[in-house]
Amino acid sequence: MSEIKVNKISPTSGGGTVTLATSGDTIQIPSGVTIANSGTATGFGGGGKLGQVVAVHHTAQESTSSTTFVDVPSIVVAITPTAASSKIMVMYTLTVGVDDRQLCFNMLRDINGGGYAQVSMGDASGNNTRVNNAYSGTSYYWDYMPFSMSHQYLDTPSYSVGNAITYKLQWRVLGDTSYINSSRDQTNHVNYVRSPSQISAWEILA
């Protein structure tokens, strides 16, 4: 097998193209070799590939009686994109204990400490409150069996590489106390359960 050692391969004319092989050939990259790209790579199947995943799994019981939006403790995730122009898929699943009163959630985003802003909400309509998710329990069984509430949002934030992007949830309840990770009724009995919640951020490369 022949071997050529060079420091740089350049086209014969400025702005030209260097062709490494012809159709049907295979260029083999041995194990342990790293290809470092500082420019623009094209023709590798396009965007949509997964860059990284950051997830927070929370198991402790949390509660609120607030009628104004306050942070949901520990349901917060931060991701630092590895590339420019990535999109961020944010997903959460909560287990919620609530009575027949309205429980609402908002999703907020902060970019590099610039301050939180609400994202992924319904359209404005008169005096209606714009929220990310909402529920009102309608059954006796919600007393001892929490329900699952989930949402996913593909975000297109404006950021610089190296910026941390943080997503958090806020909640409010109109009436009685509501919970995450437990049933609404706090009776110490085998029929009353505790279960986890999770929020995650997925970097989708451009």
Structure description:
The chain is mainly beta. The protein is 0% helix and 38% strand. It contains no helices and eleven strands. Strands 1, 2, 4, 8, 10 and 11 form a six-stranded antiparallel sheet that branches. The radius of gyration is 25 Å and the shape is elongated. The model has no long low-confidence stretch (mean pLDDT 85).
Q: Evaluate the radius of gyration.
A: 25 Å
Tell me what portion of residues adopts beta-strand conformation: 35-45%
Count the DSSP helices: 0
Structural class: mainly beta
Low-confidence stretches: none
Largest sheet: 6 strands, antiparallel
Which descriptor suits the 3D outline? Answer: elongated
As a percent range, the share of helical residues equals under 10%
Quaternary structure classification: single chain
Count of extended strands: 11
Summarize the structure.
With 206 residues, this protein is mostly beta strands.
Set down the secondary structure blueprint:
Elements (H helix, E strand, L loop, with lengths): L49 E9 L3 E3 L5 E10 L7 E11 L4 E10 L5 E3 L13 E4 L10 E9 L9 E9 L4 E3 L16 E8 L2
Antiparallel strand pairs: 1-11, 2-10, 3-9, 4-8, 4-10, 4-11, 5-6, 5-7, 5-9
Summary keywords:
mainly beta; 6-stranded antiparallel β-sheet
